[in-house]
Design brief:
This protein has 137 residues and is α/β, with parallel strands linked by helices. It has five helices and five strands, in the order βββαβαβααα. A five-stranded mixed β-sheet has the order 3-2-1-4-5, with helices on both faces. It is globular and about 40 Å long.
């Protein structure tokens, strides 16, 4: 079964799904998340369609390792996904993934609206890549 990585955001949520061997990121997309119920329904459908066995949600910690209000929102979202999917949902420290995603997109000349619609998917893939590397260790 595949593993799904989530970068939860207020406007958009990035989603990345591993390959069948859970060794690399196989696909990415973005779902609108202004309506949490719709975002959860979209993610549940993606999880079913992609035969996902577990989910990892990015946990936005502060640089000193503490958790702020955004981390609590992500924990609540992870719990909602756990209940909606019945899958194991883990949390993964996502510090600097959005910054790294912007750097990657800059290096590949993604700017403006194109970047805005892609950065969350790239951040989700970075969360998933980190988690997959951890599992391999």
């Amino acid at each position: 079964m595949r593993i799904m990585g989530i970068d939860y955001g207020d406007a958009r949520t990035g989603v990345a799904v591993s390959d069948l061997l859970c060794s690399i990121v196989g696909s990415t997309c973005v779902v609108p998340s202004r309506n949490t119920e719709k975002a959860v329904a979209d993610i549940v459908k993606l999880a079913k369609d992609n035969d996902v066995g577990s989910i990892v949600v990015g946990l936005p910690k502060n640089m000193d390792g503490t958790e702020g209000p955004r981390a609590q929102l992500c924990r609540a979202f992870a719990q909602t996904l756990r209940e909606a999917t019945g899958l194991e949902v883990s949390m993964w420290d996502e510090r600097r993934t959005t910054v790294e995603a912007h750097n990657i997109l800059s290096q590949h000349n993604y700017h403006g609206k194109k970047r805005k619609n892609t950065v969350d998917a790239v951040a989700a893939s970075l969360i998933l890549e980190g988690y997959l590397a951890y599992l391999r260790r």
